[in-house]
Design brief:
The protein is an all-alpha fold and 365 residues long. It contains 21 helices and no strands. The chain starts with a helix and ends with a helix. The longest helix has 35 residues. Helix 3 packs antiparallel against helix 4 and helix 17 runs antiparallel to helix 18. Helix content is 79%, strand content 0%.
């Protein structure tokens, strides 16, 4: 009696066929069996891929980026055509600062789906992380061409131009990002920093205040207001901004350091010392605070303490030129001219005009 196709389909799901049973199947039944088997295998692979992908998203949201990458790899292994898994794997690699890996992932994704604007955007981020600005620019441009309404692409292009000190072009891209997403404070803040670098302080303050209207609790924006007002010699306004920044974030060591610098310029050394010490208590590796303390102890003629603090700054950041200048000045007063000249030479080599002046005026070579 000829077996019916429906019966064979049921047997494939619930029983294992013996070799002799397989021998008795018709060619049509074999083809049907094979197609069902492939479909079941495909469905199982897709289910496994989706499960691993969902786990990767969960880990990513927990900021467990390396484990997320492993889950996305499992997802891709089960379904090599699952483009969302490639994309999120690359994003996780960017977040983990595994930029070379991210570039490789997005290269694969772009081969699979060439017109994927966000893939170019994220690969541009990876190139930017490696300071390969030319390739980063090309990717941001391609991302914008594919999706001219993505504010993040304009914003990142703006940050790239800022890093290259092309502030006017950066302003153009930040402005476009603001046009597309006027609710985000970041582009306002960064455009303000462009204006600050161009010494257009009123425009900088205008943008920082716009950012604060979007979110009044951004300590770093308040800090930027403070540093800009200090440049404008508005010490009262600067101190008020630093105070607000610290009230928002009591551990924001940059605000303590910058408030200390403002107090130092006003001649309030005791309070300046407290702020620099507070900054160092929060971040013992913050070289500017240690160097600033060194300068105060030099003013107070405690040259040994000034030398110790400058050394602390240098140990925290061997490329911090001001610390070498300060230590050289302390060592000069301690009658250690050979080491003082070595410090000034190092500061000069790091690009310090003051270090070059001290060295040329006091040292023979």
């Amino acid at each position: 009696m000829k077996k019916s196709v429906p019966l064979m389909a049921g047997m494939l799901f619930f029983t294992a066929l013996s070799y002799s049973q397989a021998e008795n199947m018709t060619a049509a039944e074999v083809r049907y069996r094979d197609s069902i088997t492939k479909l079941n295998q495909s469905n199982a692979a897709i289910a496994a891929s989706q499960e691993a992908y969902n786990k990767g998203i969960e880990l990513f949201n927990q900021k467990n980026f390396k484990e997320a990458i492993a889950s996305f790899n499992k997802s891709i292994a089960s379904d090599p055509n699952f483009t969302a898994a490639y994309y999120n794997k690359g994003v996780a690699e960017n977040e983990a600062e595994l930029y070379d890996d991210a570039i490789s992932t997005f290269n694969t994704l772009i081969k699979k789906q060439a017109a994927y604007s966000k893939a170019y955007f994220q690969r541009g981020r990876a190139y930017q992380g490696l300071a390969d600005y030319l390739k980063s620019e090309k990717d941001y441009e391609e991302s914008i061409k594919l999706d001219p309404n993505n504010p993040k692409a304009y914003y990142n292009y703006g940050t790239l131009k800022f890093l290259q000190q092309d502030y006017n072009t950066a302003i153009k891209y930040f402005s476009k990002s603001i046009e597309l997403d006027p609710a985000s404070p970041m582009a306002y803040n960064d455009r303000g920093s462009c204006y600050r670098m161009l010494e257009n302080y009123p425009k900088a303050i205008e943008d920082y205040e716009a950012a604060l209207r979007k979110n009044p609790n951004l300590a770093f924006v308040l800090n930027n207001v403070g540093t800009t007002k200090k440049k404008m010699k508005d010490y009262t306004g600067a101190l008020a901004a630093f105070n607000r920044a610290i009230s928002v974030d009591a551990n924001f060591f940059l605000a303590y350091n910058n408030r200390g610098v403002t107090l130092l310029e006003k001649g309030n050394l005791d309070d300046a010392i407290k702020d620099f010490e507070k900054a160092l208590s929060i971040n013992p590796k913050y070289a500017p605070a240690a160097s600033n303390l060194s300068g105060i102890y030099f003013k107070r003629k405690d040259f040994k303490k000034a030398e110790e603090l400058a050394t602390k700054a240098i140990n925290a950041d061997p490329n911090y030129a001001s610390a070498y200048v300060n230590r050289g000045m302390a060592r000069e007063m301690l009658r250690n001219m050979d080491d003082a000249c070595a410090d000034w030479k190092k500061a000069s080599d790091l690009g310090s005009t003051e270090g070059k002046t001290c060295h040329s005026g006091n040292c023979s070579n």
